[in-house]
Amino acid sequence: MYLRGFYQSGKRYTPAEYTGSIDEQGRKEYESVPGEYNTEIGDDWFLCRLKFRKIFDLSGLSFSIFLEVNNILDNQNSIIINPVTGRAYEYGDDVPSGWNDPRYPDVQARLHHIHSILLDI
Questions:
Q1: How far is CA 114 from each of CA 3, 31, 108, 117, rounded to the nearest angstrom?
Q2: Is residue 101 a contact partner of residue 57, using CB atoms and an 8 Å limit?
Q3: Rounded Cα–Cα distance for residues 104 and 63 (Å)
Q4: 45, 6 Cβ separation under 8 angstroms
Q5: pTM surpassing 0.70?
């Protein structure tokens, strides 16, 4: 049996603050705080992994059975840190103006990008 614990301090991020403006879709506008590049730290990471291995012999052959459980405590570690809230992004959170917010989908962004590529050809 093998039990492994993993701890890592939070990832750095640049905070974003409300500019006081609201765009034409009703979305609040947030921008990075000038001069505060990577000054904040997100939540720490922690997880435990459990592995079990049993080896047995049968008719001159060696067999093994494995059981592995990752994140046995089911910790929700933040992968994408929302600079507005300082924690993991969750649907419904406000996000910086440069992010595509699923509440206000930017359906024109991809078409504009494709159009620019075509103009470069």
A1: 49, 26, 10, 5
A2: no
A3: 55
A4: yes
A5: no
